[in-house]
Amino acid sequence: MGGNQSWVTEFILVGFQLSAEMEAFVFWIFSLFYIFSMLANGVIFALICLDQKLHTPMYFFLAHLAVIDMSYASNNVPKMLANLVSQKRTISFAPCILQTFLYLGLAATECLILVAMSYDRFVAICHPLQYMVIMSWRACTVLAVTSWSCGFVLALIHAILLVRLLFCGSREVNHLFCEILSVLKLACVDTWINKVVIFAASVFVLVGPLCLMLVSYARILWAILNIQSGEGRKKAFSTCSSHLCVVGLFFGIAMVVYMVPESSQREEQEKILSLFHSLFNPMLNPLIYSLRNVQVKGALSRVLQVRAT
Q1: What integer pLDDT is reported at residue 277 of this predicted model?
Q2: 173 three-class SS
Q3: How many CB atoms within 10 Å of residue 15?
Q4: Rounded to two decimals, what is the model's pTM?
Q5: Are the C-beta atoms of residues 255 and 206 closer than 8 Å to each other?
Q6: How far is Cα of residue 111 from the mean position of the Cα atoms in its chain?
Q7: 145 vs 289, more confident
Q8: Closest to 71 (Cα-Cα) out of 95, 51, 99
Q9: Which candidate, 117, 105, 82, 85, places its Cα nearest to that of 18?
């Protein structure tokens, strides 16, 4: 690693090419989004920890999702905001690698947690009588630990392969943060091994899980259509449709970025797409999954009543 840094000790994050007035406007908008996402996810996590009625498998995975979203946003957004108000947009070699490692690990973990959540909904709707047996706390813990472990093992492999590269040319990373594909373009050596590993990891954490979720939701849809009660069908569909919506957006954007062949016109589009994972996804998840949920609203009112008394 020392030999690499003798060539390049820091990178320059190009970001968006905006006027000073537009950068100030974007800074305040992104700041508000970031603060809201941190507060919303923090409230969700606190409610799940404090309210006994939310100690169920579904909310167990939601708590993990909230932690991932807060961590993911905090890994990328603060540096992005600092670059909007500073002319010096540099990041040292080691922090850049660390940022890459964390965002890859958190993104892969979120993919796998979303798979666990879809499995939870599949068992709840298709096998309701065996739900508590199948989705025991031991099973939930194994699913969560496996998701975190697989996500960060994959990220560690990417980071090790990235550190071994030689960087001796341009220092400008044409992105908002140290995104791995943008950093690879600055290497002075062949990066085909890195790209093969990225593609293989994308198949493992994107294509494979997405196929499993589509099969699960096909069976869920069939089970919902067979529910006799109209109210039961509505409730079952409501709990699954929001999850399927976020899954489609999250996996779809990730597959476009990491599995579609590169082109020179895609660089600016990828910057915009990356904002979804860094800013919009952490902000939308609490709204879609929890804040419009009757159980979460009830938990919030109970906590507020206890605080008032």
Answers
A1: 78
A2: strand
A3: 19
A4: 0.86
A5: yes
A6: 7
A7: 145
A8: 99
A9: 85
